[in-house]
Design a protein that fits this description.
Largest sheet: 5 strands, antiparallel
Structural class: mainly beta
Distance between the termini: 34 Å
């Protein structure tokens, strides 16, 4: 039986994003959680936005920490 993963960060939370060395370059820093997305295997995903960028990013929960 597969269990559903629970998101750790609610929408509106301020989180600290650490970019992965493997994925495309991204600015490490403080972001706001805009939306919770379906999990990607064993890691929840989020749509996050920085006040210094005009666009949103997708981040895995393992890349985020409470700010």
């Amino acid at each position: 039986m597969e269990r559903a993963l629970k998101h750790k960060f609610p929408v509106g939370s301020t989180v600290y994003f650490t970019a992965s060395n493997i994925s495309r370059p991204a600015a490490t820093g403080t972001y706001e959680v805009m939306r919770q997305l379906p999990s990607d295997g064993d890691d929840c995903q989020y749509r996050i936005k920085s006040s210094t960028e005009a666009f949103e990013r997708v981040a895995k929960e393992s890349q985020l920490a409470m700010s």
